[in-house]
Amino acid sequence: MGLYSLITGRRGPSGFGSASTAEEVTLGIDATNLTAIITGGTGGIGMETARVLSKRGVHVVIGARNMGAAENAKTEILKQNANARVTLLHLDLSSFKSIKAFVREFHALHLPLNLLINNAGVMFCPYQLSEDGIELQFATNHIGHFLLTNLLLDTMKNTSKSSGVEGRILNVSSVAHIYTYQEGIQFDSINDICSYSDKRAYGQSKLANILHANELSRQLQEEGVNITANSVHPGLILTNLFQHTALLMRFLKFFSFYLWKNIPQGAATTCYVALHPSVKGVTGKYFADCNEVTPSKLARDETLAQKLWDFSVKLINSVSKKNYLGFGDTT
Known about the structure:
- This protein is of the alpha/beta class.
- About 45% of the residues lie in helices and about 10% in strands.
- The protein has one domain: Rossmann fold (3-Layer(aba) Sandwich), CATH 3.40.50.
- An 8-stranded mixed β-sheet has the order 3-2-1-4-5-6-7-8, sandwiched between helices.
- This is Short-chain dehydrogenase/reductase family protein.
């Protein structure tokens, strides 16, 4: 799936392509027995993903930082589908306390969990640290989702075992993962303000999304668990993610309009990997335009993926110990 396919919308082996929409790739799928968590499902491709999944019968739990925007999103979804099952919970992925509170609230609902869609993110932010002292893009886009996934994993394992239905974890990455720091992940200087580049820091976090999914996939396969883990590139879509470079992006879009997708097209790959039966058993892969594609060499580095996993665990434990949070304690 190259540039020609992106521009023309030519369909790939899956039968879908860059012009396919989220509704199209899920047409005819009955998912009424599934429950999904979607982070950042209040706007853009996250909201479209929530809307389409709920249209197919999924009970959608939206984790949102802005609860006002979440209520508006729920109202809009229900306006189009009165039978939609949508639950809203507060979630700030840049805060360990908020992540743990979200997990406690979700567990209190006593719901199964079949799908975890790690969609939320920030992009091209000026240098700043999260409340836990981690560079914000790395904290929100990778570490937050890494912690959330680990805290929900037992629930997903129990659900897949009791239901016999395959669980699926999706990390929404980006083609921007190719534009990162030279070593891929700056393990020794993750918070270094002197070497900080808002673009490369974003690319680093998106590379981390792929590496996380790949290593998680390896561990789940080794354990023999009926859960897959994949990553997706949704495409170029002008959403609120571009708030820090909105004028520049609109300028670039004017001269490269043929490369950009609308929101229904942008949510298609996520919805395809989440629900389509042809993806059953497929794990540790990277998708774009609803087809498997090959990510960068760094993204395929198994040693780097394992190193990132260990680094993430140590980073979370160091912060948790300092703030008395406890990585494994969700009570």
